[in-house]
Design goal:
This protein is α+β, with helices and mostly antiparallel strands and 116 residues long. 45% of the residues lie in helices and 14% in strands. Strands 1-3-2 form a three-stranded mixed β-sheet. It is globular. It starts with 5 loop residues before the first helix and ends with a helix.
């Protein structure tokens, strides 16, 4: 387990977001990225969660809705990390994973892509 201060964790998340390709950042409208101390009850191993309407499901009448939300769970990500380098990579991977959901990519498809 690697433990860092909440401020340091936030800096790692900001670094991961800043490292995304420009075309991804340009498409991320109406999305809030938040950091929570712990995952929801009953899901102790959850690293992150995307809640919202993926881009692939938005129609022409998509307007006036609350922002989509990407939540990162600090305690779980830290617990899964063995050192500072691993923590940085796990934060980056979780950010990319949840943003992939925003783009409409399922967990099954991501696992399939990881095989290559």
């Amino acid at each position: 387990m690697t433990s860092v201060s909440p401020d340091r964790f936030e800096a790692l998340v900001a670094e991961a977001l800043d490292g995304l390709p420009q075309w991804v950042l340009e498409r991320m409208e109406n999305v809030d990225v938040t950091i929570e101390a712990h995952p929801p009850p009953g899901e102790p191993n959850l690293l992150g969660r995307y809640e919202g309407i993926p881009l692939t499901r938005r129609g022409s009448n998509y307007a006036g809705v609350l922002p989509d939300r990407i939540a990162l769970f600090r305690s779980t990500i830290q617990r899964a990390s063995s050192n500072d380098v691993d923590l940085r990579e796990r934060v980056r991977h979780t950010v990319v994973h949840e943003i992939a959901h925003f783009f409409g990519i399922s967990d099954d498809r991501m696992r399939e892509m990881d095989r290559y």
